[in-house]
Each structure stands twice: as structure tokens, then as C-alpha cells.
Amino acid sequence: MNLRFLLNCLLLLLVPAISSASPKQDIAIRGGTVHTMAKQADGSWAEPIQNGVVLIRDGKISAVGTDASVEIPDGTRVIEAAVVTPGLIDSRSVVGLAGWLNYDHDQDQLERSAPMQPELDARDAYNVREPLIKWVRSLGVTTLHTGHAPGQLISGQTFIVKTRGDNVDQAVLKPDGMVVCTLGSSGFGNDGKSPGTRAKQMAMLRQEFIKAQTYLDKLAAAETDEEKDPPARDLRKEVLAKVLNRELPLMITAHGSVDIQNVLRLQQELGIRVVLEGASECYDFIEELKQQNISVIIHPTMMRASGKGKNASMETAAKLVAAGIQVAMGSGYESYVPKTRVVLWEAAIACAYGCSFADALGLITASSAELLGISDRVGSLEVGKDGDIALYDGDPFEYTTHCIGTIIEGVVVSDQTR
Amino acid sequence: MFSESDAWRRGRAITQLLILSIIGSTSSLLADSTAYIGALVMPVSGPAIEDGVLVVRDGKIESVGARSDVVIPSGATQIDCSGKTIIPGLICTHSHIGMGGGGDGSDPIQPECWTLDSINVRAASFERARAGGLTLVNQMPGSGHLISGRTTYLKLRRGGKIDDLLIKDADGWPMGGLKMANGTNSQRSAPFPGTRAKSASLVREAYIKAQEYQAKIEKAVDDPDKMPERDLRLEALVEALEGKRIVHHHTHRHDDILTVLRLRDEFGFQVVLHHVSDAWKVADEIAAAGAPCSIIVIDSPGGKLEARDIRMENGVVLENAGVNVSFHTDDWITDSRLFLRSAALGVRAGMSRAGALRALTLSGAEMLGLDERTGSLEPGKDADFAILDGDPFSVYTQVQETWVEGVQVFDRSNPEHLLFAVGGRGAGDDQTFQCCGERGGN
């Protein structure tokens, strides 16, 4: 026992030395199959590279190709894996805000004091040391679009992080994500407060956006007319003004048929960028979604088939992909056990239910990056992009395959076999 | 106005009625045997059989073996299953399909309540369970009580009323266990316990009363006048004391697990430990006690304080310690359609494939005291099985057919069944949902 204790102490002493040295180190990943998730000129997925190499220098990918074509410089740390994919992206999570213990003190994903609080900034609530971050990271997830949960008409904002860092600033990839809106009964007010009906929800949203438009108009008037004072700063209106200006998308969680129709109507009325999230019954509105250029973040294939998700389908991802709609997979919000889904296993089911392997993997890599507007940084293994990588000992989607390592910007952040 | 598919459905329903009436008029057909030929047969009770044959007669398994060893009865209906895998029907030792409940908020101890009285067997969740290859479930009341009621063992026969699915004992009495719980779920404001010690204490008091009741009944054997008035609450506990009713005990934390074992030793009831999040911490103690474990696999640890330390390795740790392990869905915590996935993730974490398949089938039957009649593919057992199109632990494998006692209850090629397997418009509606003739129930 004592010997083991001493060994552990020694290891603890060694770990900081290794991790502080590793960022500077070049890494070469040698993979039996490397799914780059790059796209060819015609928009189709590039074929995976057999016996491929990905070289990472200063945190960025500096070369990708077959082992015959990429020269690994002397002294480079080489990591080998049967299968290599880009680091996974969870396109809609609440991890970091909704803690794993699920007790009041670790639940920061939903403020219930008012139905519309778009001013709530997810950065102020993100717990970078939340154990679920480590958990999903050990299963290949390197990027999270996370933030306020569905459950109020407008519950706040989201942002995008890498699953690393000792403080929120080190984690941030994109400080502003989307504004979170919920339609349907799960967005009703607490204790009989408004909104208590769907019509009231829509009326309240319309009124709030009218106020934001007035605010914008006053700002514009003050710009052109020196005699007019700008309106007093209003954080809430500032955020909604960004939605009206199409700077921020409104991410609307809606599942049922009536609620999805309300999403379509709201988008038409306001002309804003809308991302439909959850979307259990969106298979009935594929033409409309396509026409209105609405992207969809689907809640897990394993969404519980009850309540608002009772008509969810495991084939929704495949149907949306086939229709050419921009679609990604998010772990969504879970209120109980398990506190978070793992997008790798969700995409796996999409693959078993009609998606091609590449399309399914795209849901949690390249397509997700495009939807979130971060494809210049992550989502595929291409020169110049971040060195974010997930490693496996077999087909990533097989339940019995293990994720054997996760790398963020050239740093091994997980080397557990899970 | 009917849409095309509605008209089609009505047509189909009429066809089915015709078929049913034909079968009904020539019941001798049912006595004939059916041979499922050419599959990889995994009997669980023995090694897998390549190019195997399963012969079923009168709802029972007549023979199982390699094609070269099995005599296919003349006149048997022959079903080509080459390329398929046949496994015993999956057994979920802990399910909430049909949303049956037990006791109400009046008392932490309500063994008089019975899920039997509250299960909706027409719920869509039953259809999803059949689509997942399940043939038997232990339908449990919740964990919000120390003793929340009697559980019900159900065969997933196709039927519109609870009686169609019940399993009866030799006396014709519906079979089930007794649900107990400790830890935080059953702690709340009075009359419920507020601490762990109080929880155990209340359980002790209840079982002591049951022992006294039991003693009175025994004494009254010679003097019927001394027979105590029937007490449903104590009756169920006496059944547990006598080993006639297995205790299915919700428990998570390591110390709570040991408390269950302590109470078991004090009163002598037969117990299956359920969930057992901290099992890996006390696996040796569980093994020494000889207590079987019905475990759950969830996607991430936590969701509540007691499940903080749950590990996917629980399966392998218990297996290595020599504990009998089964998996459960706890549906709706996990989806019955993906029950195979629970065991696959157990394999991912190190469990043997044979052990994981046993944990979905025979081990579950043992924990419900039903292994004499189901859980493996052996002659004389009920013909409860699932036909898969591949490796049971692959994400790409789908359950093609589910059979209960020789009757097909799920057929992936039937669009009405497929809807429940995949989901989509109408999949969340119960079997009996009827509006404007849209869909006929049973």
C-alpha cells in the first residue's frame, strides 16, 4: 500500500511537468483509417485516408495525408490509433451549467425569475471544472456549444467552448453563441405565470421583439440626428437587437407539430436567423424548413419517446440530411439520469437508422461546425485547423469500440481507454 | 376523410381478422411444430451453434442444436433463418413500461399495493419493448417508498388486458416480487423517513410485525379461532419472509447496499440488488453475501448524488467477483428498444460477451425465479426468443422478430410494428388510440 502511495505521489509530481511541456511539442497521429471529414469540390465527403498521418504543430494541423506522403520530423511524438476522427462537437449541450449532481447548487442552466432574460451570458455560469466536461471529453468531445437550457420562453444565451482549460477564458472558442428560446408547454411560466398558453408565448415574443426594434430605431435616429439622445442602455434589448440584425441566431427548442409551425411563422415574421432545436416532429415540415433555410439541431436519437418527444423518430437525422437541410446532433438537456447524453452514441444510432457513416459522423464534426459558424477552426482534419482529434480502437460508432484518446490543439487531454 | 394509408390500414386489419378466424377454426394447426433453420443460435445455456435449428411446438422449445444433430419433425413449418442470430428473449428485471405505480404519498411502507392494478398494457412503451426483443419484464412500482408495493412479472404476449400478460404460479396466482428502496429517493417529509437509520428502522418494524403475524397464523393451524384478520400489507411481507416473493431492492450507495444485505440477513428474505451504482466499491461483500445484482448502464455518471460514482465497469467487476449479474432498462430511464446496447456497453467496459448475453437473459430469469421456464433456449422451456440480423452487441444490428411462447409479437417487416421500433407520427400513441378510424387497436 505504501509503495503504491509513494508511486502515486511521484506520478503527481511528474504530471505537471509533462502537461506544461506538451503544448509546444509537435504530435503526429498515425491512423489505420483517418476520417478527415473534409469536403471535396463537389461538396461530397472526402474518402477516408488509409494508413494516414495527421501532423500537429503549435496546436494547428500542419499536414494530413498518407504515411507515404507526410514526413514525420525527428523527435515528434507519434500516437497511433486504429481509427482517427476530428474531435467531436456537441452542437447543443448544457454541460458546464447543468452539473452532474443535479442539486440546486450545481444547476445554473435555468433562471426562473422571468420568462424572457436574453441578457444572461453563459460565460458567467460555466463551471470549467464540472466532471461531465471530463466525461464527454474522454469520449472524444472537444467542442461544446453549451449554455442556458430550454424551459423558459427566452432563458439566456449560449457560447462555444473547448473541453479544456482551468478557467472559462481558456475554454472559450466563441463567446457568443445563440439566444435560447423554448416554445410549447416546457416554455410555460412557473406557478401560473405567463406565458401559460402557446398563443401567449407567441404574443410575448412578438411584443419583445417590437420593443427591441424600437430600441434599434432610436439608436439609429440618434446616430443621424444630433438633437436626439440615444436610449438608455438596455442589456435585454441589446441582445434581441442582435437577433434582429441577424448577428445572433435564435435557437428555438420545439418538438410538437404546432410548436414547429410557430417557429416557421416567427422566422417569417421577423426575418431572423433561426435554428430549430429538439425538433421531434420536424419530419412533417421538411419542405418548409428547407425553404426558410432553417438549420436543425436534433435532440438525441435516444430522446425519450414520451411527452413532447413521444413521436420522435430515429430516422429524423437521415431524413433531414437527405433533404439537404443543415443538421447537427446535440446532446440537449436532460433533467435526470443520465445528466448528459454522449453525442458519439447518438450519431451512432443515426448511422444505424439511415445515415451514411460520413453523414452520421458529420452530425458531430464538420456539419456541426458549419452550423455553429466555427468551421474555420474545427470540424475537419485539414491543414490550418485546430489540432483537435479523437482516437479509437475500431469503428467509432460500435458500442464495443473504445475511445482511446482525445487531443485538443495538439495537447493530449484524455488518454483513458473508454 | 381517410388518407391512403388509413384505408390501407383498415384493409390490413380486415385481413388480419380473416387470418385470425382461419387459425381459430383450425386450432390443430397450432399443435404443429415450427423449425427455425440455419441461424447462429445462442442458447446461453450452452455454446453458440453455427447453422443451428430451433424447433418449437405448442409454445415450447422442442429441440435446439446443429442442423446435423436435430431431427426436424415431418410436417414442421420451416423458416429459413440463415444469416440471422437467434437469442433467448431479453428479460428486463426492472421496468416501468405501462407506467404502473404502487403506493401513494400516505405511507413509506405500502406492500399491499400492486402494480398489477395500474399497468396500461396498451401503452406504446409495451410495443417498444417488444421491438427491443424483450419477452419478459418485472414491472416495478417506484423508488419513492421504503416498500412501494408488489411488482408484476409480465410476458410480453400480445394482448389488450393485463390478464393476457400475467405469469401465474401453480396456484393460478399472478407472480411478482416486492419493491423496496433505500437511500435518498425514499427520504422526504413525515411520515416518510428523513435519514438512512430511520429508513432501516421503519423497515425493521414492518418486518417484525410481519413475523408476529406469521407466528399467529402458524399457531392458528390447530385453532382456527385464533387466526388473525387478513392483513394485505403483512401478507406480502410474510410472502417475502417465506421466500415466496423475491425482494427487488433499489439501492445505490455502498453503505446502502450493505444495509440491504444486513436487513436481508436479519429477516431472511431473498433479495436482488437493483441499480447498485457503487457496486464496484463493495463487489467482494456482495459476492460473499451471494446476492444477485440487477444493474443499469447509463450514458454518464451523476444525474443525482447517489449515482455520482456509477461506472460502466460495474458489470465486469461483479462478473469477476463471481456475482450473478443482470441488466435492466428501468424504462423510461433507458429505452427498451436499446436494451441490447446496455449489455454492449458492459462489454465495452470489459465484461465477457457470454456474460453480457447471459445478463440480458438467463440471469434475469433466475432473479425472477422463472429460470425453469424461460431465459435460455433449452428443450422444455417457453419458446421466448428474438431473431436478430447480426451480432447482438453491434449498433448496426436490429431486432427483426420477437416471439413469446411460440407466438410472434414483433415483426420488423410489419409497418405497424416498425413504427414503434423507429418512431415517427403516431408512435407515441397507445395501442388503443382511435380517432376517426385512424388506427384500430386490439
How would you briefly describe this protein structure?
The complex is a heterodimer of chains A (about 425) and B (about 450). Chain A has 11 helices and 16 strands.
Low-confidence stretches of chain A: 9-22
* Unreliable residue stretches of chain B: 1-30, 437-442
Tally of separate domains of chain B: 2
Q: Name the beta content range of chain A.
A: 15-25%
Fourth-level CATH superfamily of the largest domain in chain B: Metal-dependent hydrolases
Overall pLDDT score of chain B = 92
Model description:
The complex is a heterodimer of chains A (418) and B (442). By secondary structure, chain A is an alpha/beta fold. Chain A contains 11 helices and 16 strands. Helix content of chain A is 28%, strand content 22%. In chain A, strands 5, 6, 7, 8, 9, 10, 11, 12 and 13 form a 9-stranded mixed beta sheet that branches. Chain B is built from 12 helices and 17 strands. Residues 1-30 and 437-442 of chain B have low confidence and may be disordered. Chain A binds chain B through residues 99-103, 131-132, 135-136, 281, 283-284, 302, 304-306, 309-315, 334, 336-342, 345, 348-349, 351-353, 397-402, and chain B through 124-125, 128, 298-305, 307-308, 332-333, 335, 338, 341, 344-345, 347-348, 393-396, 398, 422-429.
